[in-house]
Design goal:
It is a single chain. The chain has about 240 residues and is mainly α. The protein contains 5 helices and 4 strands, in the order H-H-H-H-E-E-H-E-E. Strands 2-1-4-3 form a 4-stranded mixed sheet.
Length: about 240
């Protein structure tokens, strides 16, 4: 058996194994499983985001409540002082007006703060609702994913024996392939599904590049294999 025949037999077994593995990865159930996996990842990210938003909202609510408590204490203090001034015969109208102005300012700040708190509480309610919906969707998707994964595992097992046979065949064939050629084959295999291609019309049938005359003469020998200078595939003459 020539070098190229041994290498082509190895590539044939390798190609068959690739096709079988691709078929396992592209079944309808596997495609559904991949979609469910993507959905789960999206829902997990949404749950994490909702948790983060909730923590931020709780921190903001704590801060606003502290501000509200502080304003309440200021209001009580200012109101108490106003009552004292009202009973003080020496208190001036300017002092009374200034104190009332401060109290009105506190009331405005309190009203604005109350609006912020109501808006924040509404946002927190929305976040909680979305969180619960997301959890429900994720829970349902997880159950479907787990069930479908078992089906895909069975499909994979059904093909495993044939794939193992290809692997064993490749191992046996590799013993008859030149070691240097096998190294070049594996290097090209990292980039191309078919690392070994024939010359067609004086061109590499892989990248369609015209080959030098010297290489064509060299490859006229049916036992010679050369690398394409453009794409790195292994070339042989039919």
């Amino acid at each position: 058996m020539s070098k190229i025949d041994a290498l082509l037999q190895y590539q044939e077994a390798d190609t068959k194994k690739q096709q079988l593995e691709k078929a396992v990865r592209s079944t309808e159930n596997r495609q559904k499983l991949n979609k469910l996996y993507k959905l789960l990842k999206e829902q997990q990210a949404a749950i994490a985001k909702a948790s983060e938003d909730t923590e931020l909202a709780v921190a903001a609510l704590t801060r606003l409540n502290s501000q509200s408590d502080a304003l309440s204490r200021r209001f009580e203090l200012e109101s108490g002082e106003l009552d004292i001034l009202k009973q003080d015969e020496e208190a001036t109208a300017e002092e009374m007006a200034e104190l009332r102005k401060d109290i009105e300012k506190i009331n405005r700040e309190s009203a604005n703060l109350e609006k912020e708190i109501k808006q924040l509480l509404a946002n927190m309610t929305k976040i909680l609702e979305d969180y619960q919906k997301t959890r429900q969707i994720a829970g349902k998707a997880k159950k479907e994913y787990d069930a479908l994964r078992l089906v895909c595992d069975e499909e994979k097992k059904a093909s495993a024996e044939v794939i193992d046979d290809c692997t064993k065949q490749m191992t046996n064939l590799e013993a008859g392939v030149d070691a240097v050629l096998m190294q070049k084959y594996r290097r090209a295999r990292e980039h191309y599904p078919l690392p070994v291609v024939p010359i067609v019309n004086s061109k590499c049938s892989g990248c369609n590049m015209s080959l030098p005359i010297l290489m064509l003469k060299k490859l006229a020998n049916p036992d010679v294999v050369a690398e394409c200078e453009n794409c790195g595939r292994l070339l042989y003459s039919k």
